[in-house]
Amino acid sequence: MNEYGVLIEPGTVRIQRMLPGPIERVWAYLTESEKRRTWLASGEMEPQVGGQVHLEFNNSELTDDATPPPERYRSEGCTVTSEGRITLWEPPRQLAFTWSGGSHATFELTPSGAEVMLVVTHRKLDDRGTLRSVAAGWHTHLDILQDRLRGQQPWPFWPTHTRLEQEYERLLPAA
């Protein structure tokens, strides 16, 4: 399995991770604010198609590392919010919702023995810089989720994200 996200069509990145199950546990980490905040963002989701999604990202608090965000992310402040709507709600296998800015993320869960394959597809990413940032972001966040579910200490968020942005700059095809 490729750990890196791949461009599957213009403006769309797909990334996958094999996670410790069961599927209901992974679903809870996608949908419950307190669990989700340990790897991605806190915030409520109305559990139905059309329901509101409110995400509050504070990437500096996801790991114990005190490295500040890179300069280009500091202007956003400590907490970044995203508002959206749920477009697919099929527990515990599929979830999709819109994000602020018009992009769209889909999460697909498939059991595989004691593990669960999580596939994240993020669409409508309008330029190469956004695509690079989102790919590095999902890569970093999913690695943290994988570590949390395995009971391991995750790598520091900002140094990892910065390194991955540089790697995705090389990996993603030029526009």
Please give a quick description of this structure.
This protein has 175 residues and is of the alpha+beta class. It has helices spanning 23-31, 33-36, 71-74, 128-150, 157-171, and strands at residues 6-9, 12-20, 52-57, 80-90, 94-98, 104-112, 115-123.
If you had to describe this structure to a student in words, what would you say it looks like?
This protein has 175 residues and is of the alpha+beta class. 31% of the residues lie in helices and 30% in strands. It has 5 helices and 7 strands. Strands 1-2-7-6-5-4-3 form a 7-stranded antiparallel β-sheet, covered by helices on one side.
Looking at this protein, list some descriptive labels.
175 residues; alpha+beta; Alpha-D-Glucose-1,6-Bisphosphate, Chain A, domain 4; seven-stranded antiparallel sheet; 31% helix; globular
Assembly state of the chains shown: single chain
**Order of helical and strand elements:** EEHHEHEEEEHH
Cα end-to-end separation: 26 Å
**How many strand elements?**
7
The number of helical elements comes to 5
Radius of gyration, CA atoms, in whole angstroms: 15 Å
Please give the domain count.
Answer: 1
For the biggest sheet, the summary is:
7 strands, antiparallel
Strands in their spatial order, largest beta sheet: 1-2-7-6-5-4-3
Query: Architecture, according to CATH?
Result: 2-Layer Sandwich
CATH topology label? Alpha-D-Glucose-1,6-Bisphosphate, Chain A, domain 4
The CATH C-level class name: Alpha Beta
Indicate the percent of residues in helices: 25-40%
Structural class: alpha+beta
Low-confidence stretches: none
* Molecular shape: globular
The percent range for strand residues is 25-35%
> Taking all residues together, what is the mean pLDDT?
93
